[in-house]
Amino acid sequence: MYSRKPFYIIVAALFLVGLALMLHRYFVYEVPWLPGEKRQIWSIEAKVEFEANDKPVKASLAIPGSQPGFTLMNESAASPGYGLSFIEANGSSRAEWSIRNASGHQELYYKVDMMLDPFARGPLSTKIPTMMQADVAEPYSTAMDQVLSLAEERSSDGITLTRELLKELNNRGQNAELLAQYKAPGPLLVELLHRANVPARLLKGLELEDGRRRQPLINVVQVYSGEPNGQYEIFNPVTGDQGRQEQLLLWEYHSAPVLDLVGGSNSRVTFTMLEQEQPVNVALAKKFDQPHWINVSLYNLPLEEQALFKGILLIPIGVLVVVFLRIIVGIKTSGTFMPVLIAMAFIQTSLLTGLVGFLIIVGTGLILRSYLSHLNLLLVARISAVIIMVIGMIGFFSIVAYQLGLTEGMKITFFPMIILAWTIERMSILWEEEGPKEVVKQGGGSLMVAVVAFLAMNSELVRHLTFNFLGLQLIVMAVVLLLGNYTGYRLTELKRFKPLVDELNVDEQRGDEQKSGKQKHD
């Protein structure tokens, strides 16, 4: 006897792989299960101001990219009269403006949209920076050594040393007060760590707060543990906080100047930020803009192809509905998957318009087809004639609908003409062989299945899941294979057992009566 074990292994594999792909999509790339969700977007505008010295000007501004916690959505710049290029230099991205001659006050603008994304990854450098120990004059040198000596006693590596140094500097002791006059907290902390041979670099970050204007960048310090894997932590040298803050966007993270200006003076960069929300589909379209092998998404395709696949990916859902209603429920249809194609037409036309159009075309087609049956034409010629009639009817009804001002009626052109022609042919033959009752049964069954498939395929949730979770197709296939293995009774066949159930109920009732009479007699 043939073993079914390989079949069930294949079904289980399809289901598990599909489920794994969906879960990976949700947990790694934060694609939501439900449609209509929104994502938090920060719109940030950097304003560069300086005085041009009546000579050629080149201004290079550090700009952020996708990084842990944020995904870059859009970026643009406003610079009338200036040439603009986005360049990569030493691993960092920069916006570079240039002009042959400029004088007086100048203003340049750069705008970026960043999506708050806890699963985002980016080019935050894990390369250990080069350490530079500068010569420090007294009494600052002695103060540094004393602060380092105290902190090193209570630490075990670069990360714990940084924590202890921040405690010492924030205690505001005599040495801390003296060093506060020497340098700002960020550069001071980096210099202390380099003095202790701990790799660290100074980064520039922007604290995000809705509606804030003219905000400067703040210093944060990236401290490496010294291990070969380049593990690091980020510290705020002012507050002493360790780790990435949710509302902190790193703007410059390669130890390069934020603004490099040639041909101008008195420069400054300020930031304005605004929090907003965007639909998740808009956000995902940008998030998947740079795919890799496991992050393949339909959002990478051109919009025209995306729109096409949004419809194509609904077909397996309609197929699943047809398989369930035919195999489990036992509804008869005219053609195996004709209801799916009719449901696709309903999506384009709307349900009511589609039903009316379908009934009009098929009804009229059956009348005309009854005449062709008397001509004894060959099958190919007869089908061809029916196709031409269907096209003529669709054109005629569209013109009539337009003349009557019924614009919905013009959508009848979305019906698949070949499928309608074959439906008319099959129903006509069925009428001749089985009679009108069977035509009504199969035609009504086809329409009912098409309506159920339409309701499933037109669901916003189903549209969202099929387009964003391609693994769902494997799960649908696994379920279809399982349904194809079903050999039991259809639900519509259970009515055959009704007389048997009635007879059993009668026998049970008689037994109860006899038992009751016997008890009474006793």
From TrEMBL:
Keywords: Membrane, Transmembrane, Transmembrane helix
Domain 7 transmembrane helices usually fused to an inactive transglutaminase: 257-500
Hydrolase among keywords: no
Domain Inactive transglutaminase fused to 7 transmembrane helices stretches: 24-182
Entry keyword Translocase: no
Transmembrane region(s): 6-28, 307-329, 341-367, 379-404, 410-427, 439-457, 469-489
Protein name: Gonadoliberin III
Organism: Oceanisphaera arctica
Lineage: Bacteria, Pseudomonadati, Pseudomonadota, Gammaproteobacteria, Aeromonadales
